[in-house]
Design goal:
The complex is a heterodimer of chains A (250) and B (151). Chain A has 250 residues and is of the alpha+beta class. Chain A folds into 2 domains: 1-32; 37-250, Alpha-Beta Plaits (2-Layer Sandwich), CATH 3.30.70. Chain A is 25% helix and 19% strand. Chain A has helices at residues 5-30, 61-70, 130-134, 160-164, 186-189, 196-200, 218-224; strands spanning 47-52, 79-86, 95-97, 115-122, 140-142, 148-150, 171-173, 178-180, 206-210, 227-228, 240-243. In chain A, the strands form 4 sheets. A 4-stranded mixed β-sheet of chain A has the order 9-1-11-10, covered by helices on one side. In chain A, strands 3-2-4 form a 3-stranded antiparallel β-sheet, covered by helices on one side. The relative contact order of chain A is 0.19. By secondary structure, chain B is mainly alpha-helical. Chain B has 3 domains: 3-48, no CATH class; 53-102, no CATH class; 104-151, no CATH class. Chain B has 8 helices and 2 strands, in the order H-H-H-H-H-H-H-H-E-E. Chain B has helices spanning 3-28, 41-48, 57-63, 65-72, 81-85, 89-92, 107-115, 130-134; strands at residues 143-144, 147-150. Chain B has a two-stranded antiparallel sheet with strand order 1-2. In chain B, a hairpin with a 2-residue loop joins strand 1 (143-144) and strand 2 (147-150). In chain B, helix 3 crosses helix 4 (65-72). The chains are: A alpha+beta (250), B mainly alpha (151). The interface between A and B is large, with 76 and 58 residues.
């Protein structure tokens, strides 16, 4: 048996060349993923939401619309409305209520003298999201177009992200035992529609905007108004921008 | 030259190991992983695959331009059709829209959701205490919901 060093090298090189071919063949066998929205270019969008506290009337249309659009089980919320009631002084302890998430509206306040307003809440789709950082299986991820989504086929239902979310936006779906949350109605906005909550808001208190589209009115809104995000000190890169947000809101 | 034989065996072992690793990786990693980021691209499609339940104002306008015209001439111009009439994708996007005909909402329930007086509502927003205002009478006996000024 006479094997030269040259033989060794050429034989191993041949084997290595065959490997990607085998990989490509396997890819072909399993089939590539299909594009549902071929017109939607993921790199050309970056979504954010604006919420005008001065316009919210607490009617609960968004909560009902969201539940219907996204099949949210009773008692769980992808979006909900909170009512803040703050006495003039001392103002450290605002009373916050959200009966059934604001789904059925709000009863008249028993303390009509207090400063009072509604705050709609939903997933902030953080650019540096704590929920993505804690997921042990990579089931929660940030997309190029600025959304935080859940891969339900990976989710173990371990609840780490539910605890990590500083805004309380996540819940475990009792039917599947996987996590669920607002997706900015990705199935709608990728078709060119607005979200269910924005569609049904009677006072246009909420608007979804595309930050990568220079013609989107969101730029005007952000330029002309004083806007804030919730818990800015946590540096989550939240993308739900609130206009006229009171300092008491957490 | 006989020393080369054990080199070959070692190389073959390494090559086999690398091929085994690459094949396992190929099977374990979902197709297209990393295309858009560190996740399975099919997960995006899973989210997008959800059917819509609200058809959108543009869809309503196609068949009901008269109602929309009335709506746009009044104070409710900025209110979308489905904000009051509910999700209508089953009606609007169906082959036979008459199969899922929308039910007219009860104005005594519908109107007060927005217009019942509440101290937390913005002061500028028109509000009434419905019990004093109409005494249980249906709102639409005086107001037209699409153009809510008095008849």
């Amino acid at each position: 048996m006479s094997i030269t060093r040259r033989d060794v090298i050429t034989q191993s090189a041949k084997l290595l060349i065959l490997t990607p071919a085998a990989a490509a063949f396997l890819d072909y066998l399993r089939g590539e993923t299909t594009e549902l929205e071929p017109k939607y270019k993921i790199a050309e969008h970056y979504w954010a939401m604006t919420i005008d506290i001065d316009k919210c009337i607490g009617c609960g249309n968004c909560v009902r619309a969201c539940a219907s659009e996204n099949d949210v089980p009773d008692g769980y919320f992808r979006t909900w409305v909170e009512r803040y009631q703050i006495d003039a002084w001392p103002d450290e302890h605002p009373r916050v209520d959200s009966p059934n998430g604001g789904h059925d509206g709000f009863p008249q306040s028993k303390a009509p003298g207090a400063k009072s307003f509604f705050v709609p809440k939903l997933c902030n789709h953080c650019a540096h999201s704590p929920c993505v950082q804690v997921c042990p299986v990579g089931a929660t991820f940030e997309t190029q177009d600025g959304l935080v989504l859940v891969d339900k086929s990976y989710c173990l239902g371990c609840r780490y992200c539910v605890q990590a979310c500083p805004y309380g936006c996540r819940y475990i779906d009792p039917r599947k035992q996987t996590v669920d949350k607002c997706s900015f109605c990705y199935h709608r906005i990728s078709k060119g529609l607005t979200t269910a909550c924005c569609e049904t808001c009677p006072t246009s208190a909420r608007t979804i905007g595309d930050l990568k589209n220079p013609k989107d009115p969101i730029h005007e809104f952000l330029r002309d108004n004083s806007v804030q995000v919730l818990k800015p000190h946590m540096a989550t890169g939240a993308k739900a921008y609130y206009k006229s947000l009171d300092q008491s809101v957490r | 030259m006989k020393d080369a034989a054990h080199l070959l065996r070692l190389a073959a072992l390494f090559a086999a190991g690398i091929i085994f690793f690459l094949l396992v990786r190929q099977i374990a990693v979902p197709a297209g992983f990393g295309k858009y980021g560190h996740f399975r691209p099919g997960a995006i499609d899973d989210v997008r695959a959800r059917p819509i339940s609200f058809a959108g104002k543009a869809q309503c306008e196609m068949c009901h331009p008269d109602q929309l015209k009335a709506l746009l001439s009044g104070k409710h111009a900025h209110v979308a059709c489905e904000a009051c009439h509910g999700p209508q994708a089953k009606h609007a996007l169906a082959d036979d829209p008459m199969a899922n005909k929308p039910v007219l909402p009860d104005t005594r329930v519908l109107c007060v959701r927005c217009h019942e007086a509440n101290s937390a509502k913005p002061k500028k927003f028109p509000q009434v205490a419905s019990a004093d205002h109409s005494g249980g009478e249906a709102c639409k006996s005086c107001h037209v919901p699409h153009r809510p000024q008095m008849n």
